[in-house]
Amino acid sequence: AQSVTQLDSHVSVSEGTPVLLRCNYSSSYSPSLFWYVQHPNKGLQLLLKYTSAATLVKGINGFEAEFKKSETSFHLTKPSAHMSDAAEYFCVVIRNTGTASKLTFGTGTRLQVTL
Amino acid sequence: EPEVTQTPSHQVTQMGQEVILRCVPISNHLYFYWYRQILGQKVEFLVSFYNNEISEKSEIFDDQFSVERPDGSNFTLKIRSTKLEDSAMYFCASERYFGPGTRLLVL
Question: A3-114: CATH homologous superfamily?
Fold first, then answer.
C-alpha cells in the first residue's frame, strides 16, 4: 500500500517569508508524487509533479519540491510567500495499475499568508 | 490550455433522488476519474475509467453509483438513490487534470 502524510494541517507565514509544507510518503516502490493546490471554492490545480526524473522539481507560481528518498519526503517550498498563495495544498502519491493511475491524497495543509 | 469542465457547479437534491453529475474531459485523454471530498475531509478516490469501462473502484463506489461515457465526450457519475452522507464536492479528473467540481447537497 502507499500513502502520504502531511505533517501540518495548518501553516501560517507572513507575506515575503519562505513557505515550507511538509509531506512524507510511504511506498513499496519508487513513487510518483504530485502537489495540488485548492483555492477557496475552486477545483484542484496541479502545482508540480515528480516522476523519477530530476529530484528537484519546479512548479507553477514559484513553488518547488525536492524528492528525498533517504527521508521519504517530498516537501513543498517557496522562497517568498504571496497573499495569493493562501489555499489548501495536497500532497498526492500515484499508483499506476497498468490501465489507470489512482491518486491517493494527503489530508491537506491549509496555508495562511498574513501581512 | 484545455480544461476539464463539470456541470452543474451546485446541486441540491432530496434524499432518495437520483442525481447525474456531468464532466467533459480533455479530448485526447484516455483515463478518467471521479473523486469526492466531504466537507473538511480529504479527497477520496471513487472510480477510474478507461476504454469505456471501469478499471478500478473504491469501497465507496457501491451499487448506488455508476459511471458512463454515453456519447464519447461527456463522462457522467450517477447516484441512484442519494443519501445524506453523499453530500460532498465531486471532482472529475481527466488524467492528472481536475475539473472545478460539483458541490452536491442532499437534504
Answer: Immunoglobulins (2.60.40.10)
